[in-house]
Amino acid sequence: MEPVASGSIVTLKDVAAASGVSISTASRALDERTASRSAAAAHVRKVAEELGYRRNSFASGLRRGETRTLGVLVPRLSDTVMALMFEELERAASSRGYFAMVATSGDDPNDERRAAETLLDRNVDGLILATARLDDELPRRLRERKVAHALVLRTDGVSPSALGDDEVGGYLAVRHLVDLGHSDIAVVTGPTFTSTGIARLAGARRALGEARLTAREEWIITGGYGIENGFSAGEALLGRDNRPTAVFAANDNIAMGIMAAAHRHELKIGEDLALVGYNDTPLAARLPTPLTSVHVPLDQIARTAIDLIVEPGAEPQVRKSMPSLIPRESSGAPLVHGNGK
User: Fold this and answer.
1) Second label for 179, Cα 20 to 30 Å away, from 44, 92, 112, 164?
2) Buried b / exposed e across 129-166, counting CB within 10 Å, b at 16+?
3) Based on the domain organization, do 88 and 116 belong to the same domain?
4) Domain of 220: which CATH number?
5) Per-residue pLDDT, 15
6) Same-domain status, 202 and 249
7) Which UniProt key words apply to this protein (predicted)?
8) pTM for the predicted model, two decimal places
9) What gap in Å lies between CA 304 and CA 295, rounded to an integer?
10) Could you tell me the residue range of the domain that residue 24 belongs to?
């Protein structure tokens, strides 16, 4: 293999010559979209690496009318689930030869629209939205404009969507508490404008119904997904004589807020109050009382979202990944007398 002159830019022609193949063969071997596993392609890639060749994906994408870039819109990156989701989307996009860039929008629909337009102004090949509301106009507008897009973690039921099966997840959480002997079970769920909030509550109600338990409406609390929302709900539920013995919190942030409220009321999680969270964030297993939580396969959801954009038109358009329950100390041991009081 002849060395390339020091300081010069290594071209595709240089790689082809050093590999002993044609320029078109070298180009195909280095195209991340095809990722050929043949021995010849592997040889070309090895030579390219030794020469220090860098493929200009942006320029080649422009020639095809693509930028190989995807825009990801999340409410906020301070939310652990959203940050983890973006990391998984970034990895999944990279494996398909795409670069992912993120923008945040908060919960305001106008800010969401502006953030989406900012990403589109950068000629992204598609948008992935983790912001969808059931009353959100943005997915409809994207469909009308024929903009490639996918919703992630949430769905409006129409646009291509990749998410966990939230109804199954809510069912698993409450079924676990029922199986431990609890009958006085509260549910603290997310906003009613999100598919997650509605579906997790529906699953919880199904588990209660199967056990012939009636959910007390004062023990069903809807609100935001922040720790402060969980603390407020915990205060409302635990600051009374007639309190639940178990709580399903529809995400781990809510669960941590309820833990703080329980501590304030001198209740021990796992003994005086059983608690189940949702999403199984990394902190859940490392809390002073490790949190039982519903695990959602974010990596699988991310790969599905990328597929929905890269391979549009495949059925079904709304694809759900199966969650699983991870039992830990916060849900406690089975009750002996049913209601734990």
Assistant:
1) 164
2) bbbbbeebebbeebeeeebbbbbbbbbbeebbbbbbbb
3) yes
4) 3.40.50.2300
5) 85
6) yes
7) DNA-binding, Repressor, Transcription, Transcription regulation
8) 0.79
9) 17
10) 12-55
pLDDT tens digit sequence for 140-197: 999 999 999 999 999 999 999 999 999 999 999 999 999 999 999 999 999 999 999 9
User: How many Å apart are CA 74 and CA 184, to the nearest integer?
Assistant: 36
331 DSSP assignment: G
Residue 36, amino acid: S
In a domain, 337, yes or no: no
Q: Is 316 contained in some domain?
A: yes
**One domain for residues 284 and 307:** no
Question: What are the start-end ranges of the H helices in the chain?
Answer: 12-19, 23-30, 39-51, 57-63, 80-95, 109-121, 138-144, 166-179, 195-210, 227-238, 252-264, 298-310
Alpha-carbon span 129 to 116, nearest angstrom: 9
**Nearest C-alpha neighbor of 145 from the set 126, 172, 168:** 126
Residue ranges of the chain whose pLDDT lies below 50: 5-7, 58-59, 61-64, 338-341
One-letter amino acid for residue 329 of the chain: E
